[in-house]
Amino acid sequence: MKRRRGRSGDPRATAARLLQQLTAGRSLSELLAGATESVPARDLGLLKEFCFGTARWWLRLAPLAELLLKHPLKPRDGDLHALILLGLYQLEYMRVAPHAAVAETVEAARVLDKPWATGLVNGVLRRFLRERGALLTRVDRDLPARYAHPQWLIEALQKEWPDRWNVLLEAANHRPPMTLRINLARISQPDYFERLRQAAVPAQSIPGIPSAAVLEQPMDAIDLPGFAQGLVSVQDAGAQLAATLLDLQRGDQVLDVCAAPGGKSAHILESAPEGVTLTAVDIDAGRLARVRENIGRLGLTAEIQVGDATRPEGAWAERSYQRILLDVPCSATGVIRRHPDIKLLRKADDIPPLAARQSRILNAVWPLLKSGGMLLYATCSLLPEENSAQVKRFLAATEDAREKTINSTWGHACEFGRQILPSDDTMDGFYYACLQKA
Fold first, then answer.
1. Which residue ranges form the domains of the chain, and what is each CATH number?
2. How far apart, in whole angstroms, are the C-alpha atoms of residue 272 and residue 247?
3. Which residues are catalytic?
């Protein structure tokens, strides 16, 4: 007789509850961080796959479920709705035997205290298996369902990238690669690739980014050769460009604003010439713990301060800096493949307030830059309102600001700055602009 998991241990039921909370506005990263006790350790990877995968394809699965349900579910059955979408996700996108996916999803309805729904879940999933082709053809007539992206974002990308918008949407639905940042202060790229070879971990380099190594298959960071010794970290290659663009000089004082979780801070220190000092600031004291953890593991030193970038005050705001990294809060539309819940959480109405906040931060931090110094403005957005248009407005309004052109083979030239797209050389979508104080 099959042994059932306990109520708190079923990964499908747990995923359905978390996905219900996602639709109420909470991010998956936050939800999963609080759910580690909900399932056995062996099922944590499966739980993450269920949550991220269903969120990635939610906008295709939801209209599919609507076709399959004879009557809409009541609002109080949001967990059941999420469970049905999870069942469809398993059947369409996972390598789970159909009979097992159906049986386990039906059983999860019992765990959710909805035994009355077992027949409903069974019928919906089995009908999908019988009529899959016809159902998907009907659903895919609608662009948001076909590409699993909200209409507002599709329209924004069509406007900004008329020749590439569909490629960007497809790229955002792919699983992201696991990219490493080699600590070149401690080990050369060839030597680290040799360590990967000896550990039977296939990887490839990225032209023009000597610190980057892209793994063919993801793995636990703790199992990476040299991770515990600080030889390597996990960081997207696009994010690794920031330290190079800062063009650090010996003895520079550097300010990293909105620094959490600290990957760029650590890379700045790894690649810095002698005498460079770093101050890392973030408004979230909890997230600054990640900065301390990342910098500490690498044996590096930085001044870490809690601070509001829109209103600089305290010791860090009383100094001036030769270099400032301003990685502003943004829509994160360039990293959807890593955070697919963005497609459900972010709305078109969010963009103007975000752009206004970015403008306030840029104007507030600019006075901290020394004459002749450089500020690197960065986002992980694909939207011009947060990127090139933001920089254009700032330059027009700031007498002592000049753009320093980024001459590079990576990314795409904008009116101001350069944009990396998620389909470029395995990288996430990042925007960079160099602003020099006259």
1. 11-146 (1.10.940.10), 179-234 (3.30.70.1170), 241-437 (3.40.50.150)
2. 9
3. 380
Q: What is the pLDDT of residues 313-357, one digit of tens each?
A: 999 999 999 999 999 999 999 999 999 999 999 999 999 999 999
Distance of alpha carbon 120 from alpha carbon 163, whole angstroms:
43
> How far apart, in whole angstroms, are the C-alpha atoms of residue 241 and residue 417?
13
Q: What is the DSSP letter of 283?
A: S
Say which DSSP state 405 is in: -
CB atoms within 10 A of CB 275: 11
When pLDDT is averaged across residues 358-387 and rounded to a whole number, the result is 98
* Residues sharing a CB contact under 8 Å with residue 267, sequence separation 6 or more, in sequence order: 181, 211, 233, 235, 239, 240, 242, 243
Widest Cα–Cα separation across the chain: 77
d(CA 197, CA 203): 8
Whether the CA torsion 48, 54, 58, 62 is positive or negative: it is negative
- Does the predicted model carry a pTM greater than 0.85? yes
pLDDT for 288 beyond 80 = yes
Residue 9's pLDDT is 83
**223: CB partners within 8 A, 6+ apart:** none
- Beta strand 418-419 with 412-413 is antiparallel
Cis previous bond, 261, omega within 30 = yes
Beta bridge partners of 256: 280, 325
CA angle 181, 186, 189 (to 5 degrees): 55
Task: Work out the average pLDDT over 136-145.
Answer: 98
Contact 219/179 with Cβ under 8 angstroms? no
What single-letter DSSP state applies at residue 180?
E
Distance CA 359, CA 391 (A): 9
pLDDT of residue 7: 53
Distances (CA, A) of 76 to 72, 114, 298: 12, 11, 48
Write down the mean pLDDT value for the chain. 96
317: tokens are 């705001």
Predicted local distance difference test score (pLDDT) of residue 36: 85
Distance CA 196, CA 334 (A): 29
Average pLDDT over residues 37-41: 88
Question: What is d(CA 163, CA 157) in angstroms, rounded to the nearest whole number?
Answer: 10
Whole-number Å distance between alpha carbons of 147 and 340: 12
| Dist CA 223 CA 241 (whole Å) | 25
Contact 21, 31 (CB under 8 A): yes
